[in-house]
Protein: asparaginase
Amino acid sequence: MPLVTVLATGGTIATRADARGVGTARDGGADLVSRLDLPPGVEVRVEDVLRVGSYLMTLQRVHTLAVRAAEVLRDPDVAGLVVTHGTDTIEETAYLLDLFHADPRPVVVTGAQRPADAPDSDGPRNLTEAVTVAASEGARGLGVLVAFGGRVFAARGIRKGHTLAADTFTAPDTGPLGWVSTGRIGIESRPVRGPALDLAAFDPAGVRVDVLACHPDADAVALRAFADAGARGIVLEATGAGNANPAVVAAVGELVAAGVVVVTSTRVPAGRVAALYGNGGGADLLAAGAVPSGLLRPSQARVLLAALLGVHRDPDTVRAGFAARVTG
Ligand SMILES: NC(=O)C[C@H](N)C(=O)O
Structure:
């Protein structure tokens, strides 16, 4: 009988309202699992790792989760893992776990958009389907997955696409990998994944990576403040295919020379970052030393940058490692 371990971290799937009607994560993993109609023939074990809204999932906390996931997978009887998590930052946590996941067994992240105390919560169905995926042979070798609303997504490229709707997740450049429904899964495509990073070498302490919104009035102020605060990496949430302006480009050049790794991503939902324009555009950012993020949006570009900085430290190695993992 496949054994699936559920690691609970909080999120709306575990959230109940207080007397003011304000929600916080309260239910533990055992509460969540007790409400399920589990797939027949699957044994589930539960552990509480954290109990927070995912807007509180710092790098340190995701590291704690990654370490625990790797420890649980040392048990050869475990067929797969499920992580229950808030939806706000599933795109960060799932991708960080994926970067360090060196095991064919699936780790399946899920959550809910409607809280545990809502009569129509989507949590039980999503969790049941995540357990189904984690127990499936067909999900092996795909890395960390997100099962949500009947769809199965790869970690890389997933984005929260709606603040409140149950069908919130999208993968604008690739679409979902497949589906899960009534105890069955179908995988229609396989994700492209690089070699796993070494979790034992990762230390998130002191890894500060900030994100700068490059609206047309942006200047060097925030960039310099980030660097003064100790940022070792900065992701530009640029416009279009990855453009900023001359003031930002000049500051990027200074920061890169000082050893900060700067990455150009974009606020546009789909398509690769391309170095096309001058006058502070993507071609000038590239010339100033910024690394294009390929298809990674700012949230996941920040995660890759933080993971590499936490493993390698040296800016040139991080820059090369980042470029090697992104397409385009
Ligand atoms: N639907 C959710 O889970 C949102 C919640 N704010 C969280 O990320 O924890």
